Amino acid sequence: MSTYKLKLYVTGKTPRSERAIANLRKICEEDLGSDYELTVIDVLERPNLAEDDKILATPTLIKVLPPPERRIIGDLSNRKKVLFGLDITTMRIIERGYNDETGGRVERTKGLIGRR
Amino acid sequence: MMKQVEELRELKVLLVEDNPADAALFEETIKEQSLGGIHIYMSSTLKEALDTIKSNQIDIVLLDLNLPDSRGEETLTKLLSAAPDVPVIVLTSTNDPLMGQRLIQAGAMDYLVKGRVGSFITNAIYNTAARVEAGKKIKEAYENLRNLLNDSQDAILVVNSNNIVEFANRAARRLFGERVKIGEQLGIVSNEPGHTQELDVLRPDGTLAVVELYIRESLWYGEYARIFTFRDITERKKAEEELTKTKDQLEYLFTVSPAVVYTLNPKNLALMWISPNLERMTGYTIKEALKWGWWENNVHPEDRERALERRKEIFTKSHIWGEYRFKKKDGEYIWLRDELRRIDGSQGKQVEIVGASLDITREHQMKEEQQELENQLRQVQKLESIGRLAGGIAHDFHNMLNVILGYAEICLNSIHPQDPLRRNVEQIIKAARRSADLTRQLLAFGRKQTLHPKVVNLNDVIRNFENLLRRVIGEHIDMRLILADNLANVKVDPGQMEQVIMNLVVNARDAMPEGGKLIIETANVELDETYARSHPDVTPGKYVMFSVTDTGCGMDKETMSKIFEPFFTTKEQGKGTGLGLSTVYGIVKQSGGHITVYSEVGYGTTFKIYLPQVEDKETPQPESEEEPSIIKSKGEHILVVEDEDMLRELIEEILTQLGYEVTVAANGGEALLLVEEKGLKPDLVLTDVVMPNMSGKDLVKRLKKSQPHLKVLYMSGYSDDAMIQQGILEPGTAFIPKPFTLNDLAKKVQEVLRGGDNKR
Asked: By CB count within 10 A, which of B44, B45, B233, B749 is most buried?
């Protein structure tokens, strides 16, 4: 059982869909190692799943596990924002040497999440 | 403030109080303090109060909680549930802060503790009225805001802190349909506020939209909220994609297109932009091309001024074109066809000049080749027609000259040797013979000669002829033979070929009065389709090439175009007939060959003759096999009688070379003197038939008297048939027609010397 369970909703083969898939694969490989399970869902093929997940726009990435559920939309080109947005392993990022500048960002992200 | 006071005057306040004393006190206080600006209604029960509220549009209610029909906090709840919109100020007798809080939570605007009311009551009424008014204004403002948001083309969603949708404008409902409902949860989005990237949205009708999302954190009715604005950029995106596609297509076109496209500054015609296929065409990069003066510097100097002037015409014309040579980066010149178009913007503004350059080097070459071809064709046709004309005339002329000669000879024979008329007739004969010589050359040019083609090897012909050629050209000219090994055979008339070689060599000699080099070369060559295409008189195939090159004065193009024409000569009057090269041309053409001339003034001239090769199996005919027997002459003695100095010398030369002992005589008298007085005993006499004073026939008659076994060979410019028919010679007489080749002569001499007895 993987630690991370992710779902990525896309719409067909639009440039945004393709960019998002490529970006996410890269992030997963670099930051999550093999410890993830990713499902890419095309809303055109699986409209019911999209409805159940109340998908308004794509690309939408959902972190299903570990809880709490987090969503981020866009082509996922900003790796840092994706990781912060999904509340994934801020520790990992700090380890990677982003501590100085991103220290504040981590706080901000936590603050934002805390408000929910 | 004044306005508020005025409005407050109209305030309708309902006092709900069952204690008459309290009621009177409150009323009096309010009236006094409000200067009559507040109209007071009175009720003593809840029921009565509700009726009054209903019928009198009460603005504010002052409510005592303990009434005959209701007691405690319940009274407030009951009243508000029946009349929810009316603002209520509660009057209580207990000073309990907790209860006060509860009352406010339950919906009271304010509460006052009885006994402490005093002057506060009117203030409380005014405050509440002001708050109600402000609340209305806020509501109105939000109403306006909602209307504005509804009018927006962007889809806007307002989501509260629990992710419940508080508001969705019309555009949002259109974009998301049933997926967004007021009061329901929206999929949580944890993106930070600000711009996000482009997103895809599936519209309710199944079409796809591309949107741009902006998230803003804000307050909505005083509460934290996030506002999502989706801007539909589908059309823009489509246009962008179209543009990119068009750009890609253009880029592709520029890379495959043969034309280089560019724009020029409409003021100074400086290059502003140029398509990338420039590099393929010229080798220059775009960066190099954009440097000042690049174009001007690379236009061929001879074309520069014209091309520049042409370009400037774009100031006055809307479309111009020009052709010029342009230097590529590797230094090679190409021909460019340039087209410029001026595009005048609307209202005369923003003039643009666009241009296209096409490499037309190939077309130019083809045009030049075509022109060259046409020239050659004209040349061939001209020679052809002159040849036909000359040949036609010469043929008749030749026949008539034969008649003149024949009768002149007959005349001569019947005139007494001492008759002074003889000289006149002899002059006639001489002139007629010279004319016959000329007409024969014309016949050769006109290809009307009878050829006797044999399979020969040109190398052999040249080698046999070499010594004679050396004599002819003299010692001041260095003659070299470069003869190809394994030279293929050709089928030509060897005598005529000797004449061709002789004519070319004599011409070469005359071109080098100060001396020089003369090179005779042979080679096997193949003239292919390409060559044939550019030389209209050539059939592709295998040829034997034979060339004569001199290092003489050369000739210009004008001269070169005329050299094969009969009677065209560059030699001094009387030195050339102008028929030498015409004869060569005629013989070569009649032999199925092809002739070219290349000359450079001051450097020299090369004539190349191409004769079709014949199959290997056709071996050269006996000629060269007989050679040994000819060369191995037994040193016989030959007396040559010929009045033409040149010819006499030539014959002497030939026979001497062949190993004969030769004695020459210029006429019959001289010959008789040698034989009868000096005791010369020749084995053979070779005599011209027609000579002044004494004909060959008469001479032989005289000689035979003293030497009956003398062998005789006649020679003449006339065919033996003509001679015999006119009775000048008897049938069976040994005869050689002039002009003869070296081999002809050698063969004939041998023939007469060996089997001469039965040929009398």
From this structure: B749
